[in-house]
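Section 5.1 Outputs to date
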Amino acid sequence: MISTVLTDIEGTTSAIAFVKETLFPFAEGALAGFLEARRDDPEVAAILAEVPGPDPVATLRGWMADDVKATPLKTLQGMIWEAGFRDGRLRGHLWPDVAPCLQAWHAAGVALAVYSSGSVAAQKLLFGHSEAGDLLPLFSGFFDTRVGHKREAASYAAIAAALGTPPAAILFLSDVAEELDAAAASGLATCQLVRPADGTRPAGRHPEAADFPAVARLCGLPATS
């Protein structure tokens, strides 16, 4: 029986286009100014110390161009996005089916958690300033690449331990088959989100759903009213 839903964000709760066409360009355009304004900030200095090469800014821009899932980059992006979310220039995109299901599952006692390559700070900004309002109270856990990479089985074992939940009682939702493979290898239940608008291709290795209501029907979760 599923007691916890662990969800990815990009391609799962939110459109891939939102991340690639809104959040990434916003962070790239603000990067130089942000680093200049915060050059004496010890937190920023500590992040830059993790960036290899003689020119950290050039390395960061290269990572952005290649969509590298590097923790220092994701942490800086989260800090840059925070200003945009807090002053209203950014709102977290969610597919319309997502918030009603999250609310129904939470109301029924199903624990909710997030695992995304985006930083925990960025995750909280998206759900705290979403198009559906502040959804942070629905969640009991947030995990990013500091727990491990999403295509490694050990990451999901670590999340299950952190949540204090048997792996078999956790349902992981993602659009990426390789992430689902890793979760399944650690004993989690899985479901691949195959949203036509995102162009996701079904892998045929996991249960598949086109939206969150379909996840509920397929996996025995409470339906929305």
